[in-house]
Amino acid sequence: MESIIQAWNPDSPNNRFQVGPSSPRSFCFYFGLSETNRECRRLVWQHYFYNLVDPSQVQLYGRPAKATNEAAWQKALRENPDPTCLVPVLATSFDDLQKRVEAQAQQAAAHQEKLKEIKSRIEKLSERHELSNASRLHKASSVQTQLTHRLLKLVQHLHLLIPTLRSSAIRPEEEALRAALEEIDGEIRRPGGMGRIVGKLNELWALVGALNAMRGNNAKGTGEGLEWAVVDEDGLNQIVQILAEEQAGLAHLTKILQKDLRDVAVIYGEGEREEEPDQRADLLSSFSQTLRGSTIR
Known about the structure:
Blueprint: H1 2-8, E1 17-18, H2 27-30, H3 38-42, E2 44-45, E3 47-52, H4 70-78, E4 86-91, H5 94-156, H6 158-161, H7 163-167, H8 172-189, H9 193-220, H10 233-268, H11 275-292
Helix pairs in contact: 9-10, 9-11, 10-11
């Protein structure tokens, strides 16, 4: 009830009518009142809308000439959502509302056309990507594989390109090391080679464990009948050291073989074969951890 009273009160900021002559299609016209009616000529419907303008042109817009209600004008200024780009516009008839509806419909149609244009551009970009960029990416990937292959071939013959390595002869210890590595490599690559090496390690570590157990029994004096004793402590320590060195050498050789297998897999594009050296390394590691438990304390 209070809002209705304020809407009809000419001194209230919430007044929806202003005193003045009505237009031919004004509030009175739509409600079938005569233009000569005294009350009709005194009442004109009014409402403030906000138009979006360029921020640099906001100061060019002032108070409309037909905005005679000072309280309503000040309220429109206070309630402006964004004074930097919005200006209040007074509507006093249904013709003004119709113009605003038509303007908004035109703007919405322009937005729809812009969206269609953007969608068309996105479709063209996507098509160009599928036809051009995807093929170029595939070609670049192929070139990278070829360059990797050429680089690996260059690394194989790098010792011939470096003068210091090319002019120096292979030393006897290097030749012996190469022969030992080739022999171990051949042993591992043969069918069942890895199993034989692991079996040999098991036998050696089992022998060391047996000697360790017999020495412990002799120290406690609980042995009966024939007793075993380690005569040469230095020889036993040497055996343990040799076994440890062999195990370290096998681990190093396994890492070298894993790296070579990965390089070969990259050259032939068979990355899935990298799982085999990893399984071999895990096998050696598990046996090594098991056998270390029987080391002489």
